[in-house]
Each structure stands twice: as structure tokens, then as C-alpha cells.
Design brief:
This protein has 233 residues and is α/β, with parallel strands linked by helices. It has helices at 4-14, 17-34, 52-60, 77-85, 135-145, 161-172, 185-199; strands spanning 41-44, 67-71, 92-97, 128-132, 152-156, 177-182, 202-211, 222-228. An eight-stranded mixed beta sheet has the order 1-7-8-6-5-2-3-4, sandwiched between helices.
């Protein structure tokens, strides 16, 4: 039998004034950064592994020196799919995750959701390495100790506003040009990109997205390109 108190929790969460304010900020972010320049190509949301990911691989090409950085690995499904699409032996794939779940609540998901209890996915591809820990602790040292490679594809799947904003601002100082993919875009990730772009001079465009259906204006996942530019009024 369903606990009526548990069933009421999602409704209570969406009625919270703080949540309503956050949702208004997310809508404003989409209005300002995505809807004026929406992705011209879309795919059904359910099949992104075989559609959006394949589109990204075709757009980038089979560059030998590809650097793929994924933030939010969980069980490693998307990381594995990328290794299948980019087959050059010289390509490198790095997955960052604490493997302890969300460090803070995200919507109606409690802190700790998506935890694997510290267990990392089993990886057999020698081109793949995993970096365990919170991004704020691991990314600065990684960037300082690794030469930047081109082209770079950054997969943002951190879900949280705080984590996504940290990643965007930290990468800006080290990687001037990269392709990007956002996995949960019409929420905290869009808000983070919006706030980042107001403070850090960048140019970006969206190439493709997934949507619930053709009529939907708001995407689910997006793929595009970003580059650092000189500040100008």
C-alpha cells in the first residue's frame, strides 16, 4: 500500500516558494540563452545514446587526439557509449564522480541519490581513466597536471546548479574551446550556463538536442560548441 505521506511529498516540494523561484530562474535562463538560438536538429529523448551521441561523434569526427571529460559517471553507461563511438587509439576518456551520490538535494531527490556506495564501474578500455572524488577537489589538480588536447568534448551530467557552475567557471581558465553536452538541460544546468555566460566572456551555439516530441520548445539534452572570447561591451 502506498504511504499517503510519501505520495504527498513531490507536491509539497513543488509548492515550496523557494522551488517556485528556482523554476522561474530556470525559465528565464532558457528564454535568454536557448530559445533565441535553439538547436536546429532534434532527436527523440529516449534514444540519445544512439542518436544525439552519434550526431556528436559525426560532428566532431574521429580525431586521434580527442579528449572526453565526463562529469557525473554513475554506472558508466554514457562513458562506455562514447568509447564505442570514438575509436581512435589515441583518444582519451576521463570520468569524474564521487560515486557517493548527489552531495546535496536536487529537486525531489535527496542527497546521496545515484550513489554506487563508492564502487566505480568496471572499465576494460585502456583509454579510460576514472577520477574519484568531488569535482571541487579533483578537477583543479587534474587540469593543472594535464596538457590540453583538441578537440575536447565535455559532458556535463552533474545535475546540480552548484556543481555545473563550478565546472563551467573552472574549465574557462584552462580550456578555451570545446564541444559540450548537457544531460539534464532545462533545469539547474541551464541556469548555471546562463549565470556563467553573464560573468565569463564566451560564445556558444547549440547543434542538436533531444526533445519529448517535435512540438516541444524546451530540449532535454543538448549538444553544442563553446569558446572563450575577449571581453567586450
Amino acid at each position: 500500500m502506498t504511504d499517503p505521506n510519501q505520495a504527498a511529498k513531490p507536491r509539497e516540494w513543488t509548492n515550496d516558494p523557494t522551488v517556485r523561484l528556482r523554476n522561474a530562474r530556470r525559465r528565464a535562463a532558457l528564454d535568454e540563452i536557448y530559445l533565441p538560438q535553439p538547436a536546429p536538429v532534434w532527436f527523440p529523448a529516449g534514444g540519445r545514446f544512439n542518436t544525439l551521441y552519434a550526431f556528436a561523434a559525426e560532428k566532431i569526427g574521429q580525431a586521434a587526439a580527442l579528449s572526453y571529460l565526463e562529469f557525473g559517471v554513475w554506472r558508466g553507461a554514457s562513458l562506455k557509449r562514447m568509447t564505442e563511438l570514438f575509436t581512435a587509439p589515441e583518444a582519451r576518456f576521463v570520468g569524474f564522480d564521487s560515486f557517493e551520490g548527489l552531495p546535496e538535494a536536487w529537486g525531489d531527490k535527496a542527497a546521496g541519490t545515484f550513489s554506487t556506495r563508492g564502487e566505480m564501474p568496471r572499465v576494460t578500455d585502456p583509454r579510460v581513466s576514472l577520477v574519484k572524488g568531488y569535482f571541487q577537489n579533483t578537477l583543479p589538480g587534474f587540469l593543472a597536471g594535464h596538457a590540453h588536447r583538441q578537440p575536447t568534448l565535455v559532458h556535463f551530467d552533474a545535475d546540480l546548479y552548484s556543481s555545473t557552475l563550478f565546472l563551467l567557471t573552472t574549465l574557462w581558465h584552462h580550456v578555451a574551446d570545446y564541444y559540450f553536452m548537457f544531460d539534464e538541460f532545462p533545469g539547474d544546468e541551464a541556469a548555471a550556463l546562463h549565470d556563467f555566460a553573464k560573468a565569463y566572456p564566451v560564445k556558444f551555439e547549440f547543434y542538436a538536442c533531444t526533445k519529448r516530441d517535435e512540438a516541444a520548445a524546451v530540449p532535454v539534452q543538448v549538444f553544442g560548441h563553446m569558446r572563450r572570447v575577449e571581453f567586450a561591451l
